[in-house]
Structure formats: C-alpha cells, structure tokens
Amino acid sequence: MKHLFQPLLLLFFLPFTLAACSKSVSNQKDTDNSSGEVDGKVMDENGNPLQGVKTTIEHTVWYDTYLYGVTDNSGKYSIKLPAEPAGTWTAKAQIERSAYGQDYKFDLQADNTDPFDKSKVTTRNFTWKLSGPKPGNGGFYGAHVDLYAFGTDVDVTQIKLILTPLDTKLIDGSAATSIEKTIKDVAGTFMATDIPIGRYSVKAIYAGKKLLLDNRHDNGEPAESKEVIFGKNGTLGETEYNIEFWISE
C-alpha cells in the first residue's frame, strides 16, 4: 500500500503544478463582464486617417504577452482586453513604408503613454510624426546625417548642412521643404539630427572653405553636393535611420 499511495499523490498534485507555470492570452472577443477594451484612431500630422496600421497592447508584467489590432479605412482600431491576466497594459503603434529602395518602420506618437487596466474602456490615439523629440529620452522621430572628418581639420560643429528636397513630397505624403541644420556632438558622433525622411541633396557649408562629401557606403567620388537616402548604417535601433559622410577639402 505504501508504494501505491506515492504515485497517486503525484498524480493529484501534477495538474496544479502545471497550471501555476503557464499563462496564455486569447485575442478572441471575451464575453466576461470583467474584461475591458482599448480603442482609438491613427492619423498623420494633418489629421488624415491611416489604414492598416498595426497597434500593439503589451502587458506590463507578463513577459511576451501581447494583443494586436489593425486600423480600418477610418484609421480606427479596437482591441478587447481579456479578464486574465490581471494587471495593467500599455499601447504602441508602428507603421511600415517602402520608399527610395529602403524599408522603413516608424514609431507613432501616442497621445497618452500611461498604463491602463481592464476596468473601463480606454482610448489611445496615435500620430505619425516625421520629426520632433520622442517621449522621455528616446531621441527623435527624424533621421540623422553623421559626419566624419577625413583630410580636413575644420571644427565640425561649425558646419551647416543645407538639405534641398529632390521630391515634392516626404515619405508620408506631406510637402517637402529645404532644411538647414547645424552639427552637434552626440555621444562622440558629429551629426545633424531630426530630419524628416525624404530624398534630399545635401551640401556642407563652412566659412572660408569648400568642403566635399563622400558617402561612406558607396563607391562614388567626393563632391560638394550629394544625394541623401536614409537607411540603416551602423548599429541603429529598430526605427532609427541615418546616412554617413566623410568630409574633406
């Protein structure tokens, strides 16, 4: 009897052990009255709705626990929050576009970044911004041009970049305009920051000298004016883009 009792005891406790080690979340509509909902709208900076944008709801405690939604032709989405797991969630949205021979992914700006729970209907709206600071210390929505001195001893922080658009529209369809940027030392890299992604011609201006630009990632010759197509050069974040030039005289 003693040997028979021990296997039976193990079989009794095993289901409880397995249940305590797992957690799953369904994206199906939950009819439980204790569940909640998050909805909202995704727009460009002119207030136009954006269709087919993926929105992600992430649990703040449970690892790898997500819910997803996609905006309709009115730019609206709605995601049902399950009754379990308990706790709070955060919302984010990203948009993907292909242009200039590159694939781009953009973080969208949320109107509210506070966590929320299932106790009520929550609204989180998003805007596609091509420039401006990201919340907190998250850098900028725009791209950057990195400069590296090669054959010149100029003070790089005194250089100005003049970017002239080669197309009438930026990647989001908004009007492209000329941009003048100063160079900053950002953690040891000299760069012009927060440039809306489009296709430009760029020149480096420095008092009393003619500077040449040389794309570090092609076989072209140095020239006063170079085309800028932002991409992934160096170790960059998921939604960060740049172009790198040598500068010389």
TrEMBL record:
Secretion signal span: 1-19
Record field: compositional bias (Polar residues): 26-36
Superkingdom per UniProt: Bacteria
Residue segments, region Disordered: 26-51
UniProt keywords, alphabetically: Signal
InterPro entries attached to this UniProt entry: Ig-like_fold (IPR013783), Invasin/intimin_cell_adhesion (IPR008964)
PROSITE patterns: PROKAR_LIPOPROTEIN (PS51257)
Name of this chain's protein: Carboxypeptidase regulatory-like domain-containing protein
